[in-house]
């Protein structure tokens, strides 16, 4: 279904009736114009920047190999990007995707960063019937069913799946008292909810703190003091890039040092890695969904990223972005 939809997006309009007089043929396409918004600033900038870099590595890799083959033209076409910074704001992203479609007249779209921004653009892509292969969006099955989207394809594991992975780890190492904190957004709320449910269902530990905080918070000491008083064995924080740094800094300041500290996706960014020394990072567990050894193309893109940017790609956003790009490419071809 994706291949059919994408092929339709790249086709030139076909005449259904002969015209009375000859008209000049439209020039053949010289490139495939792909548009997206991405979080280069705001709360998601740490991961959004890396997702953008992953897109760039893929584009350069594709163009180095001649482009994407389009059967209609019988040749490969290079990829051209049109993109904007959505500042990690869902409403801005929604507006930008409409601009990409109506004003920039892109052929295809790539996904933005983050679950809450993926969800924000669903009405736009449904309206204009342009498919998007999602990547950094963990959406509950019930929400996917509620959306009834025909044009956004979610590829990230559901929160139910990732939450169970956390819980099995906690149960396996014998944790008995757990604090769960979460940023108040779709993805992080869902993960926290399923963590709590699975822990309670499996009856291996007590949830001693369960509380959310606004995304964009600048001080979480009050909440963290509750955690310190509860004295948990493990602390789970479902975070995004900026609040992952905030939580870790303030836990260190308040001398909160649980046996296990699980930081979700927010602790994977280069910004987080560069912020803290190895002693602080020792023992922190983060969620990831890919490895360069999983597929030959992933390994090739990994090496190109390392060569271009000079550091090990630390974020799950990179692998997810490449998966979505390669899926788009294969659907066109």
From TrEMBL:
The UniProt record lists the keyword Signal: yes
The UniProt record lists the keyword Signal: yes
Pfam families: Peripla_BP_6
SUPFAM superfamilies: Periplasmic binding protein-like I (SSF53822)
Domain Leucine-binding protein: 31-332
Keywords: Signal
Source superkingdom: Bacteria
Family: Belongs to the leucine-binding protein family.
Name of the featured protein: Leucine-binding protein domain-containing protein
Source organism of this protein record: Fervidobacterium pennivorans
């Amino acid at each position: 279904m994706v291949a059919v939809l994408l092929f339709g997006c790249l086709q030139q309009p076909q005449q259904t009736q002969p015209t009375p007089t000859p008209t000049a043929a439209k020039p053949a396409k010289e490139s495939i114009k792909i548009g997206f918004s991405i979080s280069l600033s705001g709360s998601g900038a740490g991961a959004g920047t890396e997702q953008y870099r992953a897109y760039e590595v893929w584009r350069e890799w594709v163009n180095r190999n001649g482009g994407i083959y389009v059967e209609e033209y019988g040749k490969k076409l290079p990829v051209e990007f049109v993109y904007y910074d959505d500042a990690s704001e869902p409403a801005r992203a929604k507006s930008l995707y409409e601009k990409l479609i109506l004003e920039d007249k892109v052929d295809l779209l790539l996904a933005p960063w983050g679950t809450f921004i993926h969800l924000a653009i669903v009405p736009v892509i449904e309206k204009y019937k342009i498919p998007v292969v999602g990547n950094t969006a963990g959406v509950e099955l019930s929400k996917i069913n509620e959306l009834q989207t025909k044009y956004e394809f979610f590829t990230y594991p559901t929160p139910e799946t990732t939450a169970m992975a956390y819980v099995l780890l906690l149960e396996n190492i014998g944790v008995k008292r757990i604090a769960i904190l979460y940023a108040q957004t779709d993805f992080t709320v869902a993960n926290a909810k399923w963590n709590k449910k699975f822990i309670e269902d499996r009856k291996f530990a007590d949830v001693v703190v369960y509380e959310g905080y606004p995304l964009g918070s600048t001080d979480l000491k009050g909440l963290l003091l509750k955690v310190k008083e509860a004295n948990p064995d493990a602390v789970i924080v479902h975070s995004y890039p900026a609040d992952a740094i905030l939580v870790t800094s303030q836990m260190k300041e308040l001398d909160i040092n649980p046996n296990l500290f699980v930081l979700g996706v927010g602790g994977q960014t280069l910004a987080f890695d560069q912020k803290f020394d190895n002693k602080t990072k020792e023992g922190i567990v983060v969620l990831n969904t890919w490895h360069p050894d999983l597929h030959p193309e992933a390994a090739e893109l990994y090496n190109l990223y390392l060569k271009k940017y000079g550091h090990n790609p630390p974020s799950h956003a990179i692998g997810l972005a490449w998966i979505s790009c390669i899926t788009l490419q294969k659907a066109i071809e």
